[in-house]
Amino acid sequence: MTAKDVIILGIESSCDDTSAAILKNGEILSNIVAGQKVHEDYGGVVPELASRAHQQNIIPVVDAAIKKAGISKDQIDGIAFTRGPGLLGSLLVGVSFAKSFSLATHTPMIEVNHMQGHVLAHFIDGQYDTKPTFPFICLTVSGGHTQIVLVEDYFKMTVLGQTIDDAAGEAFDKAAKLLSLPYPGGPLVDKHAKDGDPKKFEFPIPNVPDYNYSFSGLKTSLLYFLKKNIETDPNFIQDNLEDICASYQHTIIKSLFKKLTKACRKHGITQVAIAGGVSANSLLRSELVRIGKNEGWTTFIPEFQYCTDNAGMIAIAGYYKYLNKDFVDQSIVPDARLKI
Q1: CA dist 51 to 37, 93, 94, 117, Å?
Q2: CB within 8 Å of 200: residues ≥ 6 apart
Q3: Which residue intervals of the chain bear CATH 3.30.420.40?
Q4: What is the mean pLDDT of residues 176-203?
Q5: How do residues 280-298 score in pLDDT, each as one tens digit?
Q6: Strand 18-24 and strand 27-34: pairing?
Q7: pTM of structure
Q8: Of 58, 158, 196, 243, which residue is least crowded by CB atoms under 10 Å?
């Protein structure tokens, strides 16, 4: 190592994925994620089961990340962890581990906002020839959040608009449940949609003021649509699954880009990024490229491993905070509703 090298251990435990990453400067040396299959039988994340699984996974995951990176724990300069937002029980495991690791190794602790981590994942080395420059707008779409964020600096972010009820990712998962697709259903809706007609069925796009979103009405619309058609044709879902998925997905993506385009035009922004679990959606990615060409945008689409919850994004956010000596002490507590 040179004198300028900074090694960060990142910890992510906001929901149902336990993740640890090692980052040297801007380069990811390891990014280990342990999922939790226990939730599949329930069709969604059960908070108590999630926190118990985190307790089982956290030490093996951190150990695997350190070994894969080829370093020792004594070489770690800072430990970055997700403080929030997320499930309180899950966050507690990550925060408690960070505190213990810090006490044992005398390593500074760095708190990270989960949503800022998603945005800053674009600055991990190796993804682009040229990284985003400030200011840019990031559409952050996940199971728990849907936000249009104006990014003026690494930690100067303003939420221009967000969902007033359900997140887009939740709308995907709830639709999958109505269609009897296994959990997690969002990726399966995307998979079936590829073989369907996005204009076969029409679903409403809510008229919400400013740059905000609403997806609860869309879910309700799908529910009544399915009930009505199943009454006359019990095999309606099986016979039309691809077209239903394609039409429903098309409506969500159209809604997302309608507000995103409006925000970019209003603020004169031509650099646009996507982030969060739903940024792995194939239609969202392709539409960003298509609309970006029409609007004259420079677009940034993260690698798949940095879309869903992962510690790599926490480590890069922690790296920039480390450079500013922005540390916290043992009094820090998780915040399930932490805002940008």
Answers
A1: 13, 7, 10, 21
A2: 240, 243, 244, 246, 247
A3: 7-121+307-323, 130-301
A4: 95
A5: 999 999 999 999 999 999 9
A6: antiparallel
A7: 0.94
A8: 158
User: Regarding beta strands 109-113 and 78-84, do their DSSP bridges make them parallel or antiparallel, or are they unpaired?
Assistant: parallel
CATH class of 130-301: alpha beta
Cβ within 8 Å of residue 265, ≥6 positions away:
295
Strand partners, 82: 112
184-214 CB burial, b ≥16 within 10 A, e <16: bbbbbbbebbeebebeebebeeeebeebbbb
Cβ(240)–Cβ(86) under 8 Å?
Answer: no
pLDDT at residue 207, rounded to an integer: 87
CATH number for the domain running over 7-121+307-323: 3.30.420.40
Query: Rounded to whole angstroms, what are the CA distances from 264 to 149, 272, 274?
Result: 10, 8, 13
